[in-house]
Amino acid sequence: MAFTEDLTVFYSTDDFAVDAIYSAVGVTHPTNGTTIQVIPDKHYVNVNGMESYRPVARCVESDVSDAADGAQLRIDGSDYYIRDTETNGTGETVLILEAQ
Predict the structure, then answer these.
(1) Measured between alpha carbons, how far is 12 from 71 in angstroms, rounded to an integer?
(2) Residue ranges of the domains in the chain?
(3) pLDDT per residue over 26-43, tens digit each?
(4) What pairing do the DSSP bridges indicate for beta strands 50-60 and 72-75?
(5) What does CATH list as the number for 7-99?
(6) Fewer C-beta within 10 Å: the chain N or C terminus?
(7) 49-73 residue pLDDT tens
(8) pTM value?
(9) Residues whose CB falls within 8 Å of the CB of residue 34, separated by 6 or more in sequence, listed in order
(10) Could you give the CA distance from residue 5 to residue 22 in angstroms, rounded to a whole number?
């Protein structure tokens, strides 16, 4: 049985979330996309002793159901490519980002 929760409470721009523009693969410019709410964050990465952080954005899964490598996200004027997605079964998705 899938977990269901009203995520709008968590993705309110009055708290932690910010507006972002999501553009699926094939949309020519990030400003031609759809406005969604995301919580920007960074994931810790350790590859062979090389420590780093990579940008990510948490969002509602249904807002980015067509997200694929090459889709785009604009957060606070910064443009990112979406390189991967991680869903957790709660209706939330983490977008793995790469700066453009």
Answers:
(1) 23
(2) 7-99
(3) 776 666 789 999 999 998
(4) unpaired
(5) 2.40.10
(6) N
(7) 888 889 999 999 999 998 989 899 9
(8) 0.84
(9) 21, 22, 23, 63
(10) 22
